[in-house]
Design brief:
Layout: E1 25-28, H1 36-45, H2 47-57, H3 63-67, H4 87-115, H5 117-123, H6 125-136, H7 141-169, H8 175-179, H9 181-199, H10 206-223, H11 231-236, H12 240-251, E2 253-255, H13 257-260, H14 275-283, H15 296-314, H16 317-329, H17 334-362, H18 364-387, H19 391-405, H20 412-419, H21 426-455, H22 459-477, H23 486-491
Parallel strand pairs: 1-2
Helix pairs in contact: 2-7, 2-9, 2-10, 4-5, 4-7, 4-21, 5-7, 6-7, 6-10, 7-20, 7-21, 9-17, 15-20, 15-21, 15-22, 16-17, 16-19, 17-18, 17-19, 18-19, 18-22, 20-21
Length: 494
């Protein structure tokens, strides 16, 4: 893998088994669908967001066996069978993941620009190796928390870079479908953590549960050489021969001139730059997280992606998962409640997959707005069920909220965050978007219980109001991006 910086066309050609000399068909690049080479690269690189999903949920099930010790339990080899800690300390060990995620998200733009999209995701596995290793071998709560923080850094970087990579290798007509593999991988990771946690929910197997992330990281490292680098990244670095070769293989056609013509800075580009473009390039200034909001053409999409990601967390989706076990255990045994919680994870996967199948048919706006509208109803029913102690209604509402969120409000903000910015600002814009997501996650987690103690289940009315406000704002401000090139979308904000 080559990771050269800006400059002339590189002497080396992108090395990947997917670029072996196999027959390539005739046709235009812009008319291409998702080829085997494209899908293979996407699936391999989606192991990164899958690890993010796994680490989100890895401490949900084994809380009791990690934090409390029975008097007759001995040591497991040289490692203690548990790590005695208070609920406050356990919450800190869990929530520090979000702080690491914020750090990783802000660093992801720099990584993606310096190492390439594929290269950044590969090197990011260092955090996915170190974090689970520390947690699996933890001898103190502090060691467990440090491992969570390091894993959080990797997770924060992965969910910035992976959607960017998917959008840049995807054919225009199927960009939404391929990009939603990011969210699908996340929810598959969550489901995997729930299943592993249920099976390993006894001492000392919790160490196996938190250490499974190490296996996923090794799997990603073993397979990453098969995937290709983003052709748009290669083109932006002046590596035009490599970019064309990669793009031909990804599209399965020989004629890619129509697609690269839209990328600019090329012989194929026939459109003259606009005056503000000339001024921007003449300045020779890189677009970073520190200056992206200073450029007028990026200011509006920057604000929109911040609103999309922060608003997603104001929907209250994380509190639904927080409540799931508590609500279900009021009606069923602890063991059966665990099974039903896993079924919520299954529903999450199925609903997300359904969104991936229809996003390029119906568009981003309809999927996003209908998802928000359905969540308004579902969250209202959940609040009523909890407030009036109607356990059946509350339990059913848990599934309704997940079914409403997963196809639209879950994945579409990630997709739009990669479509609003051209290649120069994509990394910086993605970093800011996911930073807003992590800040929203942290603030909602910190504020939820104090507000609930103050006003009871009326706290869900706050989520409903937030959903209504966001829904109205997105209806007025979010453009449809289906079937448009990223350059066309970015130019519409100028």
């Amino acid at each position: 893998m080559s990771c050269s910086g800006r400059g002339s066309t590189a002497d080396t050609i992108e090395e990947s088994p997917l670029l072996s000399q196999r027959p390539i068909g005739e046709g235009r690049s812009l008319d291409a669908g998702i080829t085997r080479a494209c899908m293979a690269s996407a699936v391999i690189m989606c192991i990164a967001p899958l690890q993010y999903g796994y680490h989100i949920a890895e401490l949900n099930t084994p809380k009791k066996i990690i934090s409390t010790c029975d008097g007759d339990v001995g040591r497991w080899g040289k490692l203690p069978p548990c790590l005695p800690m208070s609920d406050t300390m356990y919450s800190m060990a869990t929530s520090i993941f979000a702080i690491g995620g914020l750090v990783g998200s802000l660093a992801a733009g720099w990584m993606a620009e310096r190492l390439g999209r594929r290269g950044a995701l590969v090197y990011n596995n260092a955090t996915y190796v170190a974090g689970p290793l520390l947690m699996a071998l933890a001898v103190s709560p502090a060691m467990l928390a440090i491992g969570r923080f390091i894993s959080g850094i990797g997770a924060g970087a992965a969910i910035v870079i992976a959607p960017l990579y998917l959008s840049e290798i995807a054919p225009i007509r199927r960009r939404g479908t391929l990009n939603l593999l990011n969210q699908l991988s996340i929810v598959v990771g969550i489901l995997l953590a729930l299943v592993v946690g249920m099976v390993a929910n006894r001492r000392p197997l919790w160490r196996v549960s938190v250490g499974c992330g190490l296996v996923l990281a090794c799997l990603h490292l073993a397979m990453a050489s098969v995937a290709v680098e983003s052709p748009r990244f290669l083109w932006a670095r002046g590596r035009h021969a490599e970019a064309r070769m990669v793009l031909r293989r990804l599209r399965g056609v020989t004629d890619v001139a129509d697609e690269v013509a839209a990328w600019g800075d090329s012989p194929e580009s026939s459109a003259a730059p606009k005056p503000d473009d000339v001024e921007l390039h003449a300045e020779g200034v890189d677009v970073t997280i520190f200056n992206i909001f200073r450029f007028s053409q990026y200011r509006v999409p920057w604000l929109l992606v911040l609103a999309l990601q922060f608003g997603q967390q104001l929907s209250g989706i994380n509190t639904v998962f927080y409540y799931s076990s508590t609500v279900l255990e009021k009606m069923f045994s602890s063991e059966f409640s665990s099974v039903l919680t896993v079924l919520i994870g299954v529903l999450n996967v199925v609903a997300t997959a359904s969104g991936a199948l229809i996003v390029d048919r119906f568009g981003r706006r309809p999927l996003l707005l209908s998802s928000i509208a359905a969540m308004v109803v579902a969250v209202t029913l959940l609040g009523v069920g909890l407030g009036l102690h109607i356990n059946v209604l509350a339990a059913v509402s848990l599934y309704l909220v997940v079914a409403a969120f997963a196809p639209g409000y879950g994945p579409v903000p990630f997709l739009l965050g990669t479509e609003f910015f051209d290649v120069r600002a994509a990394s910086a814009g993605g970093s800011w978007a996911l930073a807003a997501n992590w800040v929203g996650t942290f603030l909602v987690a910190m504020a939820f219980l104090p507000i609930q103690n103050l006003i009871g289940e009326w706290v869900f009315a706050i989520f409903v109001v937030a959903l209504l406000v966001c829904g109205c704002a997105f209806y007025l401000l979010i453009p449809e991006t289906k079937g448009r090139t990223i350059e066309e979308i970015s130019a519409s904000f100028k």
